[in-house]
Amino acid sequence: MVKGLNAVMKKDILVMFSSPIYYIVSFIFTLICGYFFYSNVMYFNLLSIQASSDPFLSEMLNLSDMVIKPFFGNIIIITLLFIPLLTMRIFSEEKRQGTIELLFTYPISDWGCLLGKYFAVMISYVGMLLWTLPLVVLMGIIGSPDWGIVLVAYIGILLAGMGFSAFGVFCSSLTENQIISAVLTFGGLLLIWAIGWMKRLGGEIVGKVLEYISMTTHIESFSIGVLDSRDILYFLIFCSFWLYFTKKVLEQRYIKR
What we know:
Largest sheet: none
Structural class: mainly alpha
Helix content: over 70%
Order of helices and strands: HHHHHHHHHHHHH
Number of domains: 1
Radius of gyration: 21 Å
């Protein structure tokens, strides 16, 4: 069923990691994450200094609430902005170069091709996330964070990245223009992210549906250290949904079976 997955994945990883664009994107991603981390830590330090003369403020200070949770919440937002840059070329570039028809003539399965490209994006994304680990280590040096919250937050970031990537791969299958692919991915993800804000404008049933569809509903729990099976299921369904429709798009246009 997934024949050729490793070959496609290795080929796309090689292309991704040999491109200077990936390293530029990774550098800017890390720089922005570092900026937010620095801002949160400095604000915490400022309040800590003020708390030395204010016992009430001292009781309110909490590293998890004031540094860890905002930091990982910011990473998820940054991920939403940067995933389109990783997925925009996955199928669009194949179309532009005219190699996508040739790709599906190789002795690989349809799912092997699709999942190989999807996993290549995920490995590239994990490579970017690894640059945030020194910040987490530094957090452990300057304080005593709740490592359970840190672990759950990273699980949430990975699941969010999986969902963002699946939607990005779908958008890339629709066009041969990488810029259009990136814009479609960002716009679509932003809509799915914010659609829950409209729940008050609909009825009770419609409001609950919109709230469930919205990503913010399922991401917030990870950022506060809550690992809910319903949120995990949401992202697994989200990934499966968009990967399935990506395969349907490719079948209709390129795969002759």
